[in-house]
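The methods section describes the discrete structure representation at length, but only in general terms. Since the whole study asks how a given chain folds, the encoding of that fold should be made plain. An entry of this sort, consisting of the sequence and the corresponding backbone structure tokens, reads as follows:

. . .
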Amino acid sequence: MEAWERAKAVLEAEGWNLDALEGELEWPFKPRPLTIGKVRGTLFGVAIGDALAAPNEGQPRRRLLQAPLDKLLPHNGRPAGTVTDDTDLTLALAHSILKTGTIAPPDLSRSLVNAVNQTVGRGWATTQAAERLARGAAWWLAGTPSAGNGAAMRAAPVGLFFDSPIEIRRAAFLQSILTHRDRSAAAGAIVNALLVGWLARGGPVEPEEALEWLAQSIDGFEKPLRSRHRKGRYTLAGLVREVGEYVGRPADAFERFHTGAFVLESLPSALAVFFSYPEEPEKALLCSAHAGHDTDTIASMVGGWLGAHLGDRKLRSRTPSDWWNVSAAAEIERISRLGS
């Protein structure tokens, strides 16, 4: 992958340890072939979680629990069911992968810029990077130095459309640095994509095994970051290993990890929700939608994992039918047929 060599040369000169992303990594189970049901389930899961939770974005959990929602509602001046940047950028990434067969940064840059210009609720780091890309900045330099979750939230298609864990890890990293030039942000994209790949190929929903494997996939790559809410420095790998302590207790996970747009907050919290309710998507998505703060990103990641695990038929049978009336439905159907 030529783009990988370019990124490696530039970033290793800046002190990044990309050797940590080149070690052996295999599925610890016999993977099943990808099906259209798993593709459709993943992408609809992302969109449903996004649209359901978008009206709650930015609000504290205690306020949300006083007036809980259980249906799609209007938000951002748009009708109920409208998706935001979480879904639009996920689909933009899917389009580029299916068009080029790889992570082709020039094509992906155009796809992301177009999506950012049309979506609602876009994050500042991605918006700034898109502006630089639109002005012609080199893709390996355009990314914002931000540990936000914008690169992670859109990474699900990488887990679907690349086969091996090593390919998924590299591709998730590459797509991330176009907008987020940060090790933790890239690690978040890798974790999301690998978990989608694990679930879509029939990997066991066993928290201890899955979480340790995910943590190992990014061990040694990150630079520990300060937390905004507690003393000390943390890596995503370390926090992923903590998630198992909160399975069945997502409310406690929200208190421990917090639920902001910082990837070290929202991604561990999302993992705690998914592994608490992997067979109960309605409960998982409502829990995510009331997590507080970056609710739509948390719910979109949880929704993607639920769809990758259950497939579209089980996901549809276990969620309210009106939740499926999302604005991206036709586009998801088209991508699902192309990608299967």
Q: What stands out?
A: The chain has a mean pLDDT of 96.
